[in-house]
Each structure stands twice: as structure tokens, then as C-alpha cells.
Amino acid sequence: MLLLLLVCLPVLASAQDWNYRIRPGDTLWGLAGEYLKPGIPWQRLQAHNDIANPYHLPPGTTLHFPLAWLHLQPALAKVVAVRGEASVSGVGNAGPIIEGMQLGIGALLRTSRDATLSLQFADGSRLLLMGDSELRLDRMSRYGKSGMVDTRLRLQRGRITNDVVPTRGAAPAFIVDTPNASSAVRGTRFRVNTTATDRTQAEVTEGTVAVSAKSGNTLVRKNYGAVVSQHQAGGIRAVALLPAPDLHGATPLYSGARARFEWPALTGARQYRVQVSNSPTFDTLVVDTETTEPEITLPQLQEGEYSLRIRGIDGAGLEGRDSITRFTAEAFLEAPIGISPSDNSTVREQKPEFRWAGIADAAQYRFQLSADASFQTTVLALEEKSTALRVSQPLPPGHYFWRVATEAGNGRVGPYSDPTTFTLRSLQESGPLESEVDKREITFRWRKGAEGQRYRFQLSRSPDFHKTRVDQIVTDAQITLPKLPAGTWYLRAQAIGEDGFEGPLPPAQSVKIPCAICKAVAGGGLLWLLLAL
Length: 533
What we know:
The protein is 7% helix and 44% strand. The protein has four helices and 42 strands. The protein has an 18-stranded mixed sheet that branches. It has a five-stranded mixed sheet with strand order 29-35-34-31-32, with no helix packed on it. A hairpin with a 5-residue loop joins strand 9 and strand 10. Residues 1-15 and 520-533 have low confidence and may be disordered.
């Protein structure tokens, strides 16, 4: 299979050579000792290059080194960044992957669904391993001091993005194998995705990649891609990738603390890949997701600078050319913590007071009251600078939900707090009091409230009830007292709920008790007046 790849690459020479440009002071024996394997004399290098005079090497001319003669040394890959859970197993490696770790031949890398990591190889080439992927480092060799490396990777499942440094050698220096295909390059940017044992796709964004499989081989040029399927008819066919989405002037639109982006739809795109990184080189990904619409609402991000990368995905699953922009995530505005009314509580006041915890640097708060948990319609929507708010108009009994959001000085609004629910059950006031007087006692009656409701009855000579003659809690909507002295009395009946909540004190009512002696005296005076006539 590799032989087919070598035939496909137009840049290959007939002999697999590494080319070296001669510098002043170079000698054949010195270069042979520095680059050739032990046991290969410098005379063979002279003969291979048809050099007549070994003592005269013109600076600037090219010296050809067969790859098979070059001295090979094992190379290592370095973990330059990692985010999320990733592990390594294999020869000399086992456990979690950490930044700065050196990985050798045979290492098997696995990433969790939300993890990403970046590797740097001996020649400076880089690889980004996506979430839910498995990659084995099959071969990593360095050709002496030539700077050339030979890297072969096996992507068993998942996705990778590669940025390969061009090499001066004739042979492919970077090869990615999947269960059913192989991709070989000498320097390019390309992506490989294998989701199952019978499907591989390669997308080239720079340079050329030779893709080979049992069904054939082809060269995939810049901005083209190819799909290799186990049961596909015919050979491998390269197709043009979707153009990059237009992100010109794209700025985040905030919905609470979450940034939202929109872009014009791409013709032929069935969905879009959206990636966010806090590194301009996308060493790791904070977000790696797909969306079927040309818009995305990102999860809440910490304050800072981010890079956004978006590309279209066509009907065959090939991911197109990237469009990249930068944006700033603003400071996260926390939702206030509700204090009262508490969740699942019962409120008796028809003009309840709402209280919540304050947020530092908040300019004001946005309060919402609704009769449904989705807040599709609101009973009240108010702005308040303090952390307390009292309803100005009485609320009818019922079930309610309330929440609060923080608004910053620049007008940006953070997320709303989780809805807090309460039930409003107002107490029925006693209404006007009626009295019934006989010779020995007086009975006061008022309107009966809900079942289980009690009443506090107060009687006083003064309307402010500074001193009370009677202050008594009763279960019935009436009270019987001994006959009261004559004069004006003030009385009121306060409703008390079955949960102990005391309703507001109603306005005082007054009653006048007539003076019996005064009546008798008045009647006797009239009799004497009649007798005197």
C-alpha cells in the first residue's frame, strides 16, 4: 500500500533521497560521519553523487543522501496542551495524560467525549486529537541530524486535525492509517475522521494528501476531500469542500451570559461544525459541537479572549473550509439568590414583598412574576435598584413563580435565577361587626372566614388601642362579653390563618353603649315637670 502512495506523489524522486545543500567548509567524510549509518563509508556517498573530486564540494550545490543510508534515532511526541480527561497506555506509558508529557512509540491515547489534546512531533508538526478518539503512535523516527522525521500514526476511531511541517525528503514523512485507509503527506494541513471500521474521510485545507485503500488511491488537493467506504462502488473520488462560512462582522449577541452567533447559510450544508478555543492556534477546544442551523448559542464561558472556528458539513459528511474569528467573552453575571418568598411557601399578603441577595457591581435587577414556570407571560416585569420589591397592587389568590436577573452598568443582563414558586392564599377580613345587647351581656359578630381560621378580637376605649379592655383569640366569628359600661368603645377582629399567619389589623369600628341611669333620670325629670303644671 505504501508503494502505491509513493507512486502517487509527484514530488518523489526515482531514488528515495534526502537532499542537502552544501555549505562552505563541508567535506564528504565529515558529512558521511554526521548523517550516515555506521559501516557506510563516505566513498559510497561520493559514488552515489558522481563526485569526481572529493576534496572540492562547491557551496550551494546539492548532495543526495539515500534515506536507507541515514542514521535513524527514536523520536518522542510532546503533549503541548490537554483539556478534559485523556489517558495513555502502552510501552513505558500508563495513566492520565498531562501537559508536557513525552510519549514514545507504541503509546495508545484515548480521550473522553469532551476532551481534546495537542501533540507536537520532533519536526514541529502538530496534531489535535478530538473527543471520544483513540490514536496509537506506531512509528516516530528521526534521521540523524538531518531534521527529517518519519511519523506513522494509527487512528483507530475519532477525529484528528494535522498541521505537518514540510520536509525536504522525497518520501512521505507523515502517514495516518485508519482501519480501512491510509493518508500520506510530506507537509500539509488536513483532517482525518474515522467513525467506524468501514468509513474514513480526509479533508485537505493546504497541500496535497495521497489517500489509499483497497478500492484504489487518489491525490486529494487543497480544499478537496475524499470518503473511503468499505462497500463503495468504484475508486476513491476527491470532491470540493464547502466554502468557508461568512463570519465577516460577526459579533456575539448575548442571551444572558451565553454568547450567540449567526451567519449566512451555506448552500449544500446539512449542518455545521462549531469549535471554540482559548488559544488562537486551537491547541485545545472549549467547545466542539454541531448544529443544523446557521446559528449557535455557546455554553457559558469564563471571561477572556476566544477563537471561534466554523465550517459547513455536506451531505456526505465531509467538513469544509474553516472560517475563524476572535471574540471576547464578557464577565459572567451571576443570578441573584432568592430569599423570600421561599420555594413552595404559602403567602397570605395580597401585596407581598420579594427579597433576594445582592450581586457586587450590579447596576440594577430585573424582576419577573408569572403564573407559569416557563414565564411565557408575566404578571409583573419590573426593574429595581435595591434587593427588595413590594407589589403595589393586590394579587389575586393563586399559584405564582418569580425570578430575578442582574443587569450590569453596560446594560448586559445575566441569567435569571431558577424560578421560585409560592401560593397566595389571602385571609378573608372580618368586615363590619354587629352587636346584640340584652340586660346582662353583649355579643359581637363578624363575617366568617375559611375553615380552620381563627380571630383576634380587641376592645378598647381609644381608637389607637393603646390599652385594651379585651384582647382575646377565638375560634368562632363572634364573642360574648358581660354588659359594657356606657360610652364609646372601639373594636376590631383580626383574621389568623390555620398556619398561624396573622392578617393585617383592620380599621377600628366604634359602638356606643347607652347609659341606663341617664335614661331613668331623664324619665323622672319629665314626670316632675308634668306634675308641676
